[in-house]
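Quick review question:
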């Protein structure tokens, strides 16, 4: 299946995935699909995760279980507030919902003790080459660039995307632009995919 542009991919996925989503509706968002917990729990299968001291997570609802796991495993959680309103650090076990991220300590990226070993994002679509399509705001790529520029990412940082199997395509590379950052691993409810 060939798409004309990223927006066509988004509309296609939002229609297909809606029956498999929790509240809120997936339209205009990173879909919060029902089996997201299963996909997030696969992060513990990654050796890179086990070795990481600090994990970055976007604020997407689909990543809630991943954020919980990071705190359960007593790692440092670096998160970004919705609409990139700043970065926060959480170390205590709180339920790291979008709302509770605001309870985190404002992160001074220049003084962050640990390097980010895992960079986690949700997606609207992703392909087996690691090309990710978000909701269209560009936040995911900007977050990666900011953390890279500030020297917060480990040299061997692993870019992890959580997705429903419906969101995984063979090839979307023909839609990508220069600023698009490639993922390294895709976690779905049924698979751990190391990209080509």
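Suggested answer, residue by residue:
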């Amino acid at each position: 299946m060939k798409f004309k542009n990223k927006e066509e991919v988004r509309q296609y996925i939002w229609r297909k995935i809606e029956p498999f989503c929790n509240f809120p509706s997936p339209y205009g968002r990173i879909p919060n699909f029902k089996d997201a917990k299963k996909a997030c729990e696969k992060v513990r299968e990654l050796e890179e995760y086990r070795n990481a001291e600090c994990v970055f997570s976007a604020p997407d609802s689909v990543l809630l279980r991943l954020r919980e796991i990071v705190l359960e495993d007593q790692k440092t959680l670096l998160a970004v507030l919705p609409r990139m309103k700043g970065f926060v650090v959480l170390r205590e076990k709180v339920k790291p919902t979008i709302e509770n991220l605001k309870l985190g300590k404002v992160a001074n990226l220049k003084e962050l003790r640990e390097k980010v070993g895992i960079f986690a994002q949700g997606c609207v679509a992703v392909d087996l080459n690691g090309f990710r399509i978000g909701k269209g705001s560009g936040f995911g790529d900007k977050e990666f660039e900011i953390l890279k520029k500030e020297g917060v990412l480990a040299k061997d940082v692993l870019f992890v995307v959580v997705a429903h199997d419906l969101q995984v395509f063979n090839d979307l590379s023909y839609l990508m632009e220069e600023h698009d950052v490639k993922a390294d691993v895709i976690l779905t409810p049924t698979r751990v995919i190391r990209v080509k």
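Why it works: DSSP finds five helices and eleven strands in the chain. The chain has one domain: 6-194.
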